[in-house]
Structure formats: C-alpha cells, structure tokens
C-alpha cells in the first residue's frame, strides 16, 4: 500500500471517484502535499466534484499525464474546499509546479473566473 504523502510528491496522480452505481472513474490530476493529505484542483463543474459530493471515497495511484497508472494504491476521503481554501490549494500547486503551474492557474482564472475551480483535499481513509 502506498501512502497519500508519497503520492503527493508524484507529478501526476490518478484519482478514482465512484458513480452512484459504483462504477469507478479515474482522472489524472496535479497534486500537492498538504500535511498527511494531498490537495488537487479542478473545474467546479467537473464530474469528479459531483461524484465526491455523493461519495467522498477515492482511490489514488501514481500515473503519467495520460493516466497510465503505476505503483501501489492508496485509499482516501475527499473534501471539497471553500473559496479561501481553494486559493491556498492554488498556491501549493504554483509552488510545486513552478512556471507551468502559474501559467495554467492564471489561464484557468481568466477562462472560468476565481470561483470556476475548486480545491479538493484528500486525507487517508480511516
């Protein structure tokens, strides 16, 4: 079993959320460490946000940009963050991903506005 803390150091993490019928949906995302948890950032209208509201259980694995997974899996519980907490998530991602992170986050703010994305904190399950 891989720890969430280890996964937070990876360039990409595959976050698997679950539909109401139990179907797993995996998505590759950027992630940054946040204590024993990790944080991700996504459009507020993304399917994963809806699925997390319904079921906060997630599984995580290291992956590449295309979502090809490798290594062990970690189980977690996801929490959708407030606007203030989302700004903190953006800062953590900018710090980890450098210039690329700053440019992507700026582009997203210009396209969607400050409230068009949300931060999600994933802590170890249990």
Automatic annotation (TrEMBL):
Gene Ontology CC terms: cytosol
Native organism: Planomonospora venezuelensis
GO molecular function, a single term: coenzyme F420 binding
Oxidoreductase in keyword set: yes
Pfam families named among the record's database cross-references: PNPOx_N (PF01243)
Protein's name according to its UniProt entry: Pyridoxamine 5'-phosphate oxidase N-terminal domain-containing protein
Cleaved signal peptide residues: none
Domain named Pyridoxamine 5'-phosphate oxidase N-terminal: residues: 7-100
NCBIfam families membership: Rv2061_F420 (TIGR03666)
Presence of the UniProt keyword Cell membrane in the record: no
Gene3D superfamilies assigned: Electron Transport, Fmn-binding Protein, Chain A (2.30.110.10)
Keywords: Oxidoreductase
């Amino acid at each position: 079993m891989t720890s969430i803390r280890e996964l937070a150091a990876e360039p990409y993490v595959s976050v698997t959320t679950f539909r109401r019928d139990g179907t797993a949906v995996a998505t590759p995302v950027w992630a940054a460490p946040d204590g024993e948890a990790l944080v991700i950032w996504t459009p507020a209208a993304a399917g994963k946000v809806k699925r997390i509201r319904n079921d906060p259980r997630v599984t995580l694995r290291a992956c590449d940009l295309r979502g090809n997974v490798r290594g062990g899996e970690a189980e977690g519980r996801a929490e959708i963050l407030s606007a203030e907490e989302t700004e903190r998530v953006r800062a953590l991602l900018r710090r980890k991903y450098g210039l690329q992170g700053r440019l992507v986050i700026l582009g997203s703010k210009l396209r969607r506005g400050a409230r068009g994305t949300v931060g999600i904190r994933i802590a170890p399950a249990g």
